[in-house]
Amino acid sequence: MRRLVAPLGLLLALLLCLPGVPGLSVAGPSPAAASEAGEAGDVGDGSAQGTDPYWPLDGNGGTDAQHYDVRVRYDFASGKLWGRTAIAMTATADLRSFSLDLLLPATAVRVDGRKARFRRAGKHELRVVPKAPIAAGTSFRVVVRYAGKPGSYRYAGERNWLASGTEVVAMNQPHMAPWWFPSNDHPSDKATFDVRVTVPRGKQVVGNGVRVGRKVRGGLATTHWRMSDPMATYLAFFAAGRYAIDRGTTAAGIPYYNAVSRGLEPRLRSYVRNVLNRTGAITDWLQATLGSYPFATTGGLVTGLDVGFALENQTRPTYGAWIYPGVIVHELAHQWFGDSVAVQRWRDIWLNEGFATYLEAAYAAEHGGPAVPVYLERMYDKTCADPTSAFWRLNIADPGAARVFDEAVYDRGAMTLAALRNRIGAGPFAALLRRWVAEHHDGNVTVEQFQALAETVSGDSDLDGFFDTWLRSGTVPAPTPANGLRDVTCG
């Protein structure tokens, strides 16, 4: 995710605008208890809570999602959505019942083809009771039918549905799925996806992955998109409206699919389209820097709706009309850092946002901007004079739910990586990033794992002090070589 204006990131954004661009209480067991229940298999009711203390209701105990087959129909005039989602799951405990995350009212549920009892458990949970218990290790299929107006619902202080009478786009972080399909809504439970969206035939639909096909029946059309690599639920999206489409392959042979809303004024649309079409070249640069692009296709979508952030939806990031080259670098870098290599816990968000912001700086360094060490020096000089600021006080390895998208997570996170590059050397650092994404492709990771790999790759077995100073100390790092700051003074 990248917001419209990040104060410290604004300078970098300008540098990248290079010449040539125009009913049940939700109270329940603690996350730890829920985890134990899911592992031990000695509790017959899968917890309605996951294991993440930032948002304890995200995800559920006792089940592991494997594949989502999401089919929705959306009516622009009323703002109503009808859905049928089939989920292939595996029981990780003996289950009498289990939960799914869903805000819209369910109308029917089946488990392995048999009607199941269900009820709402608070505003966010759907409790399902199958006809017969499900044994641990068993694969099963649950089908949920549901309907409602997504724009009427709120969760965790968020009202995330983004739509007008002519366009809709399901994009947000850290939550989006419960507004349009039932799921285990946490990045630690990835799955593959088929998504079919039905809208009036005059509209187009854009989604993740590869476009499988489009079928027209009367006044309606159903478009099918498939994501064959595991994906976190918040990264699943669809957009429907009228779009100008550009497709082809990058110089390195990666297929791309770009879409720009025709709701934008023509001159703005032309400008935005030209900027978005940098996606191919930027994807190729990132591949050359980080190793093989992790998915089958790349691209992006620019909505005509008023959105103040961009998001790294897997294979096809979504942007507002304020798009600029740096934000494309940021969201495409997330395809490696955040999408393919996803966080295990929301506290690990630095591994997404700090890394994507660092890649903005690295891209700028190779395209007419300051070298990475100079970028670090300038950022340090800009921030070090106020050691009591929130920018330095925040523990970016555990920022808390209210501050996961704080400026420090992004910019101090990027500075940490630039300083690590100074500390261990440019060559070992480049090898570290490539090995990180290769070893954890399609996986989930923690900050502690990254530190361990940094020590292994660099041969420096004592980086505890470095990471504690930059991530957790709450103070300005001293300008020393041990902190990756050479010939730097504050002020």
UniProtKB/TrEMBL annotation:
The keyword Signal applies. Residues 28-58 are annotated as: Disordered. Keywords: Signal. This is M1 family metallopeptidase. Residues 28-48 have a biased composition (Low complexity). Residues 326-470 form the Peptidase M1 membrane alanine aminopeptidase domain. Residues 66-235 form the Aminopeptidase N-like N-terminal domain. Residues 1-27 form the signal peptide.
